[in-house]
Amino acid sequence: MNITVNWLQKGFHMEAGNEEGGKIRMDGKTEIGGLEGGMSPMQLLLAGIGGCSAIDVISILEKQKQNLKTLTVEVDGDKQKLDAGYSEFRTIHLHFKFSGDLNPKKVERALELSITKYCSVSKALEKGSEISYGYSIID
């Protein structure tokens, strides 16, 4: 896996690209000179855990022959500043909103497997953060 980050020569505005040509913009907050042109690196961590777990859950539900119509993952992270000067997430909570003809027990199993076993991002972040999750099935 290889990611290249290029500074776009304005404030802290950057663009990251992967080997397949995918791109995403990053920026710092305006109070430190950012242009609000992209997500902060810390926001990308939350987006990463949301996307990683969503991929797992979709895959598991498909294997369970569930009829998933839509999925939204809301991710909330509580940052704390440490004495060393950097911040880390103390807690991360994911709330999954599903629609479709879904068996709640299968949804619960898919979520448990993703967060506790398969999602590489949650496994990396759980060392320093308490990760929790919940869900709702919307008719």
Description:
With 139 residues, this protein is of the alpha+beta class. The chain has two domains: 3-32, no CATH class; 41-138, 2-Layer Sandwich (GMP Synthetase, Chain A, domain 3). The chain is 32% helix and 38% strand. It contains three helices and six strands; from the N terminus they run βββαββααβ. It has helices at 41-63, 104-118, 120-125; strands at residues 3-7, 14-18, 23-26, 67-81, 87-101, 130-138. The strands form two sheets. A three-stranded antiparallel sheet has the order 1-2-3, with no helix packed on it. It has a three-stranded mixed sheet with strand order 4-5-6, with helices on one face. The mean pLDDT is 93.
| CATH architectural arrangement of the largest domain | 2-Layer Sandwich
So how many helices?
3
Strand ordering within the main sheet: 1-2-3
Molecular shape: globular
What class, by secondary structure content? Answer: alpha+beta
The CATH topology of the largest domain turns out to be GMP Synthetase, Chain A, domain 3
